[in-house]
Amino acid sequence: MEKFGVLVVDDSSFMRKCITKIIEKNPKLSVVGIARDGYEAIEKVQNLNPDIITMDIEMPNMDGIMALKKIKELYNIPIVMLSNYTEEGAEPTIEALEAGAEDFFLKSELINQDVDDKIIDNFINKLINVIESKKIQKQCSEINKDEMVNKRELSNDKPKAKVNIIIIGTSTGGPVALQSILPNFPPDLPVPVLVLQHMPPGFTKSLAERFDTFCQLHVKEAEEGEILQAGNIYIAPSGFQTTLHIKNDNEVVFKIIESSDDNILYKPSVDVTLNSAAPIYKEHLLAVILTGMGNDGLVGCKSVKKYGGHVIIESEETCVVYGMPKAVFEAKLYDVQVPLQDVLKEILAYV
């Protein structure tokens, strides 16, 4: 069995041992080296050529964000950041994702004595999925780069109907993917945009504030009872489910709820939101499924299509992880599948 090499970067010897122990338990992964700061990480990358890097954000000498930027300039190696679960830790984590980190994971979840096996499995699966997707991307580009980039797959050739809302769902790799879309929406966009990004509680507020600084539309975290208005991009708050409800005066409002359903893995869940939106907007709903692990969005897209709505999905060659779009693709619930650089153009064709 092929083993993927992991470089563990952290200034804490305790954390290095914890992460190494977790990684080494999986037969697909092997820790090929450790580094104590950003300078050592860059040196180890040159010598060890790992398949993936776990990178602490806060380190002496050279922190994780600076090391991330320098490594990304030189190498096409995926990096998963390890973040502190604090409000202060959210902002640098978002900065790291914007700088090209594929994803992040909370340190507190990995070192918790009562850590759930599902959390460990999620961490390991995240590493493996990112590695395997990166290798597939490389193979695709080597086979025929021009053909792959220009590929556009249609599930039907129906004329595009004008929509009244855009709902975007994404997970691993989402913050970077969103950077190519949200800032490029025109300032006169006539519909609201709702983004569901899988993140731990407390991080979506920083994500919204960050995007608000460089988007042409106002970006904010969605709030309970708030009326959806054109010209706004709403980020669904993490740790809750965001649903849409129509009032007697036909205004649509957010209902932010706590879900106790153990069958729903993600908070926010793309499925939950789309299921609530589809019967309200019907053929005037556009769902966009971008890069991400798992199949969140599959059930929701079934509802979207049932009510006559429309679905755009990101194609494999540009996904950090081709999980969420793949599930929708295989179920034939999409209208068009395109590379990330073409997603905005496809969206705007509906508005």
TrEMBL record:
UniProt-recorded Gene Ontology molecular function terms: phosphorelay response regulator activity; protein-glutamate methylesterase activity; protein-glutamine glutaminase activity
CDD domains cross-referenced by the UniProt entry: CheB_Rec, REC_CheB-like
SUPFAM superfamilies the UniProt entry points to: CheY-like, Methylesterase CheB, C-terminal domain
Active-site residues, record numbering mapped to chain: S171, H198, D296
Presence of the UniProt keyword DNA-binding in the record: no
Record-linked InterPro entries: CheB-like (IPR008248), CheB_C (IPR035909), CheY-like_superfamily (IPR011006), Sig_transdc_resp-reg_Me-estase (IPR000673), Sig_transdc_resp-reg_receiver (IPR001789)
Entry EC no(s): 3.1.1.61, 3.5.1.44
Keyword Endoplasmic reticulum: no
Record's function text: May play the central regulatory role in sporulation. It may be an element of the effector pathway responsible for the activation of sporulation genes in response to nutritional stress. Spo0A may act in concert with spo0H (a sigma factor) to control the expression of some genes that are critical to the sporulation process. Involved in chemotaxis. Part of a chemotaxis signal transduction system that modulates chemotaxis in response to various stimuli. Catalyzes the demethylation of specific methylglutamate residues introduced into the chemoreceptors (methyl-accepting chemotaxis proteins or MCP) by CheR. Also mediates the irreversible deamidation of specific glutamine residues to glutamic acid.
Domain comment as written in the entry: Contains a C-terminal catalytic domain, and an N-terminal region which modulates catalytic activity.
Entry protein name: Protein-glutamate methylesterase/protein-glutamine glutaminase
Underlying gene: cheB
